[in-house]
Design a protein that fits this description.
Oligomer: heterodimer
Number of domains of chain A: 2
Number of helices of chain B: 4
Shape of chain A: globular
Structural class of chain B: alpha+beta
Strand order of the largest sheet of chain A: 1-2
Shape of chain B: elongated
Structural class of chain A: mainly alpha
Order of helices and strands of chain A: HHHHHHHHHHHHHEHHHHHEH
Strand order of the largest sheet of chain B: 1-6
Order of helices and strands of chain B: HEHEEEHEEH
Number of strands of chain A: 2
Number of helices of chain A: 19
Strand content of chain B: 15-25%
Largest sheet of chain A: 2 strands, antiparallel
Distance between the termini of chain B: 73 Å
Chain lengths: 435, 190
């Protein structure tokens, strides 16, 4: 009897509550009065464990600077492949597995572009340091950051067991993807759409030992590929590598294959798995001066066309691209539902409709995003057209090279070529026999 | 021609000039953004007022279990014996039996305080951030249970994968020195 009445009371209670809920669907507070305790009970506080303290971020910046300095020292002064290897191992362990790969310099490109184009985004100083420091070091000493400080580059370097030679033409073509990726990463970050580089980071699942299944497969595949193809991410995808390449091409000092003068012995010719060694050019020009001049003139005429065509083409794709933006996506869904007379088909639209924002506001916002994609598309297309044009220039430009030297833009300063140079052997012997 | 000193000089000159330009550009970007950078570090947090308890926090976090957990604003709680956040709707009895509990992982602990009040505590190790209790408490109670990103767990990804799927836009970056959006008196004092 007692039990039944309990059940009945229970039922009444829930029914009553249901009524209350129906009347006020919103999160109402104070439905029940706060209790006055007779006992000595004291209400505990909500625990608020703090985030990793700012000094952790500061420490990371210091470690980054030290690692950059040490690697540059090993690459240029000490000429020690072993030292660079050890630094790579350190970076994979520290920046990769311990700090779990976030924030990295590669991704910081997006934070910087978001900060440049979106007034609402404030970039943390630590992230800014991660963006600027490697570029400064590269401007001074070449891409020592890629060699052994970047955890993404380092992990590929460590698993590079049996690299195959990628044909030069293929390498050039695939290398263009870096520019495309950079362009899209900046466009999508600047419009507040997505951080593509983070979303499709192939190594983060390895560093974190967790991700969705598809990304884990992707990571495994990429790591497997890195065994056979030297640094596929750095060479063909990495958007930051574009900026680093520019800085490295202008670098003040750079790792050299030989410690002395090159005797053109050709021993190092095939030593670079990344195909980043420039070979001495033949004395004769490949084409006559007149012909070369004519080609350059054509290219000069074509370059503005490429830029315009690229800009126009990409600005036409604003509708397609902007659909990646959550606001535009939602506006599309709302419009489709309104047209079909079936509101609330998805969680997103249900949520939006429950929030009470007028649909016009959403549509205006979406239109604003689309317009930003249009102007951004012009910039992106023009940039890609320019890059494509410059590549054509470079293919037709005859640059005299007198000795075997690293191609400064492409060289990762990993130091694999050191041991191939006979002069290096002499140098090491001298070091040993000095005493 | 091969070792024409003029040719080499021009190349060096160009390189040096461009290097200076690059250095200035880097300095410019760094200085400009650095001057605007308000805080050393930003962290992700969700606004409980915007949260719609869609359960995505439980599944989209890169961590398993999620870094989003239920927290309790004790000074908002009514300390009821029959708790909308603790008991399954239609629970036969208002006790602590497993079949009466709403939480799928048994992450809420109920302790008797004094008649008729009960204290509800989140066992954070068990909580998966599914927000079932948040929904129950918000619908039937005072709304003292709510979700927060726990910063001792959160990896602070550059792109929070929950934020990309949050339907209500509750996820934002907040300054690291004020990393929680709390309910109750604790929230007001912040």
């Amino acid at each position: 009897m007692k039990k039944r009445s309990g059940n009945f009371a229970n039922l009444l209670f829930w029914a009553g509550l249901m009524l209350v809920v129906m009347q006020s669907a919103a999160l109402a507070q104070d439905r029940f009065p706060k209790p006055d305790f007779d006992s000595q009970y004291r209400q505990p506080l909500t625990q608020t464990p703090p985030p990793a303290s700012p000094w952790q971020e500061g420490a990371d910046v210091v470690v980054l600077a030290l690692a950059l300095g040490l690697t540059s020292f090993f690459a240029i002064k000490k000429r020690s492949r072993r030292g660079i290897w050890a630094m790579a191992l350190f970076s994979v362990i520290y920046f990769g597995f311990m700090r779990e790969g976030c924030v990295c310099s590669v991704g910081s490109v997006q934070n910087v572009s978001a900060a440049l184009f979106d007034a609402g985004y404030v970039i943390p100083i630590g992230v800014l340091a991660f963006f600027v420091l490697p570029l400064i070091f590269t401007l001074l000493y070449g891409r020592t950051f890629c060699a052994a400080v970047c955890p993404l580059g380092a992990i590929q370097d460590l698993v590079m067991i049996k690299p195959v030679k990628v044909p030069e033409w293929l390498q050039e073509v695939l290398g263009l993807f870096r520019y495309i990726y950079l362009g899209f990463a900046i466009l999508f970050a600047a419009t507040g759409t997505a951080f593509l580089v983070c979303r499709y980071d192939p190594f983060i699942s390895i560093f974190r030992m967790s991700n969705e299944f598809g990304m884990i497969l992707f990571s495994g595949g990429f790591l497997g590929l890195s065994i056979l193809v030297a640094r596929p991410y750095c060479r063909f995808l990495c958007p930051y590598s574009v900026l680093l390449g520019w800085m490295s091409a202008l670098s003040r000092r750079h790792l050299s294959i030989t410690p002395d003068t090159c005797h053109l012995c050709r021993l190092c010719e095939e030593s670079c798995p990344m195909g980043a060694i420039s070979k001495p050019t033949p004395d004769a020009l490949p084409v006559s001066r007149e012909q070369g001049g004519k080609r350059l003139a054509i290219l000069l005429a074509v370059l503005p066309l490429l830029i315009l065509a690229g800009g126009w083409g990409f600005s036409r794709l604003d509708l397609t691209f902007s659909k990646m933006h959550p606001t535009v996506n939602l506006a599309g869904q709302i419009a489709a539902e309104d047209a079909a007379g079936t509101p609330g088909l998805t969680l997103e639209t249900r949520t939006f409709r429950s929030q009470g924002t007028p649909t016009e506001t959403l549509f205006t916002e979406a239109e604003g995003v689309r317009r930003r994609f249009r102007s951004g598309g012009w910039l992106l297309g023009a940039f890609l057209g320019l890059i494509f044009g410059i590549k054509l220039f470079q293919l037709n430009l005859f640059r005299r090279v007198a000795e075997y030297q690293p191609d400064r833009e492409a060289c990762f300063s990993c130091g694999r070529c050191f041991s191939y140079c006979p002069n290096e052997r002499v140098r090491l012997d001298q070091l040993q026999n000095r005493y | 021609m091969a070792d024409d000193p003029k040719d080499l000089k021009r190349r060096d000159f160009l390189r040096e000039g461009l290097r200076t330009v690059s250095a200035l550009a880097l300095g410019g970007i760094g200085g400009m953004l650095g001057a605007r950078a308000g805080s050393w570090e930003m962290v992700w947090q969700l606004d409980p007022e915007k949260c719609v308890q869609c359960e995505r926090c439980a599944t989209y976090c890169v961590l398993t279990p999620s870094a989003v957990k239920c927290v309790h604003a004790y000074d908002v709680c009514g300390y009821c014996q029959l708790c909308g956040g603790y008991h399954r709707p239609g629970a036969k009895t208002q006790d602590t039996a497993a079949e009466n509990q709403l939480c799928p992982t048994g992450a809420i602990k109920r302790t008797y305080v004094e008649n008729p009040y009960y204290e509800y505590t989140i066992i954070e190790e068990n909580c998966i951030g599914c927000a079932k209790c948040v929904q129950g408490c918000g619908s039937f109670g005072n709304g003292s249970l709510y979700l927060q990103v726990r910063h001792d767990r959160c990896l602070n990804c550059n792109e929070c994968s929950i934020a990309t799927v949050c339907p209500s836009g509750a996820f934002t970056r907040v300054p690291a020195d004020r990393p929680y959006i709390l309910k109750g008196k604790q929230g007001e004092s912040l």
